[in-house]
Specification:
It is a single chain. The protein contains 15 helices and 19 strands. With about 500 residues, the chain is of the alpha/beta class. The strands form 4 sheets. Strands 7-8-10-9-13-17-14-15 form an 8-stranded mixed beta sheet, with helices on both faces. It has a 6-stranded mixed beta sheet with strand order 1-6-5-2-4-3. α10 crosses α15, α11 (about 340-350) runs parallel beside α14 (about 430-440) and α13 (about 385-395) packs across α15. Bound molecules: ligand BES, manganese (II) ion (MN) and zinc ion.
């Protein structure tokens, strides 16, 4: 990731800071003295400052500024989304101009909150990321150093938020990088090694299990998906311990199908390459753990990654085969392309041993979710309203949105089987929901959330690539959970105060 730092610079110091380019966010009441301020004021007065999105008034060697290129955007109280758009626009323009150093001037704004700062950091990191792992010649962003110029007060107040934003951005980058790597460079073994490396760097516990251990655990459903592949399956357990050992953890479960051909129920050839992204759930768990290792919140979190390929082969599982899951429930595999739920169900059963506060799985699970919600919001399911609200607000805070979907039992009707306890598919209707209903059968022992990220984890078309979602949502979700007891303590203290007064009187 590029270098991003926070500096206490008022408007005059920002204008005087040596750099190749400057993006300045200008509020309506902008005031100041000197050439630079006069220029900004006159542009503001004449109504020449675009106020929306990634449009800006572009100036070249403007008088009073130390930077060659200055972009002015008029904003009063920019939403995090506005900040994201302006920063993305400035970074794109700076990269086009070959600028190496860029300053984002935020000190003129009346107020700056953590969400706005996080948006600036997320956007800067996002728009300077380049994929290079399998290219002969690396192509890197010209912009390598970015300074966020804030008032001295804001720097002091937003230090923690900045650290969270940086750690999250690094986590997002990890998720993007692993999502983007082709199937032959991101095998289950590679994911296991990546988890070990993240664990080593962050001093986390990590165990990578292979077939023998998975067999011993009785994960017959997971094994069935992997059995058509030459790549050995891996079951990865990551543990972040920020609280007392007896503190119930949150468990995050990631779908790690490193390539999904559909198996014997083979997918059509067109765009099948995109099924290398079928491990984005796993990648988001890796990214989240890397971020947690840096942020160090007071909470315990377990990460489970079920990684294998879904391939057709003489030994592959066949439509109609019945397998026994770790839970003991038998499953009739009517379609081998509905493999995500088959690997996740065994991980959900495994999660029981942690007696978790909550379990959230993250999966590029269904094409139906792409049809339902597109690329804007992830499909979100939860067995309690409280958990749903937490996931929803974590998504809003991180600008990594999700939308709650229903879990009515009537949606499970189509999963009935004549030959097993449950079938792995229902009809075409409500496909994302019926997949969730299948998983819910394995999540009866804890509060359970499920994120169907098939539409949000990556983009197709010309800008094809992983988005790093929903790392932002997951980090905010965990942080909110970690701070929940703290907030409760504050409330309790306030509530206890009148009592004292009463006792004195
Ligand atoms: N990995 C796919 C889901 C997917 C599709 C993700 C498109 C991203 C984009 C999943 O394993 C799958 O194939 N699901 C099937 C389920 C069906 C057979 C019930 C699907 O959605 O078509
Ligand atoms: Mn599939
Ligand atoms: Zn899949």
């Amino acid at each position: 990731m590029i270098n991003i730092d926070l500096k206490p610079l008022d408007f005059a110091a920002t204008a005087a800071m040596p750099a190749d380019a400057l993006l300045l966010l200008v509020p309506a009441g902008f005031a100041g003295t000197g050439d630079a301020a006069a220029l900004v004021q006159s542009a503001l007065k004449s109504g020449d400052l675009p106020a929306k999105g990634n449009k800006a008034l572009a100036l070249y060697k403007p008088k009073g500024f130390a930077q060659k290129r200055v972009w002015l955007v008029g904003v009063d109280a920019p939403s995090p989304k506005d900040v994201r758009a302006s920063v993305a626009g400035a970074v794109a323009a700076a990269r086009q101009a070959g600028a190496k150093t860029l300053v984002i001037g935020l000190s003129a704004l009346d107020q700056l909150d953590p969400a706005q700062l996080e948006a600036a950091v997320a956007s800067a990191a996002d728009s300077t990321y380049t994929y290079n792992h399998t290219k002969a010649k690396a192509e890197v962003s010209s912009v390598q150093n970015l300074t966020l110029a804030l008032t001295a007060d804001a720097v002091a107040q937003l230090k923690d938020a900045f650290a969270v934003a940086l750690a999250t951005a690094k986590g997002v980058e990890i998720a993007k990088e692993w999502g983007n790597r082709p199937g032959n460079y991101a095998t289950p073994t590679h994911l296991g090694d990546a988890a070990k490396a993240i664990a080593k760097k962050g001093k986390l516990k990590c165990e990578v299990m292979g077939l023998a251990q998975v067999k011993k655990l009785g994960m017959g459903s997971f094994m069935a998906v992997a059995q058509g592949s030459a790549q050995p399956l891996k079951f990865i357990v990551l543990q972040y311990s920020g609280a007392q050992p007896k503190d119930a953890p949150i468990v995050l479960v990631g779908k790690g199908i490193t390539f999904d051909t559909g198996g014997i129920s083979l997918k059509p050839g067109a765009e099948m390459d995109e099924m290398k992204y079928d491990m984005c759930g796993a990648a988001s768990v890796l990214g989240t753990f890397a971020a947690l290792a840096e942020i160090k919140p007071k909470i315990n979190v377990v990460g489970l990654i079920v990684a294998c390929e879904n391939m057709p082969d003489a030994g592959a599982v066949k439509p109609g085969d019945v397998v026994t899951s770790m839970s003991g429930q038998t499953i009739e595999i009517l379609n081998t392309d509905a493999e995500g739920r088959l690997v996740l169900c065994d991980a959900l059963t495994y999660a029981e041993r942690f007696k978790p506060k909550a379990v959230v799985d993250i999966a590029t699970l269904t094409g139906a979710c792409v049809i339902a919600l597109g690329g804007v919001r992830s499909g979100m399911y939860a067995t309690t309203d409280a958990l749903a609200a937490e996931l929803q607000s974590a998504g809003e805070r991180a600008q990594d949105l999700c939308w709650r979907m229903p879990l009515d039992d009537d949606y499970a009707e189509g999963l009935k089987s004549n030959f097993a306890d449950v079938a792995n598919i229902a009809g075409r209707a409500g496909g994302s929901i019926t997949a969730a209903k299948f998983l819910q059968r394995f999540a009866s022992k804890f509060d359970w959330g499920h994120l169907d990220i098939a539409g949000t984890a990556w983009k197709g078309g010309a800008a094809k690539g992983a988005t790093g979602r929903p790392v932002g949502l997951l980090v905010q979700f965990v942080l909110a959970k970690a701070n929940a007891p703290l907030q409760k303590a504050v409330v309790a203290k306030k509530a206890a105060a009148p009592k004292k007064v009463a006792a004195k009187a």
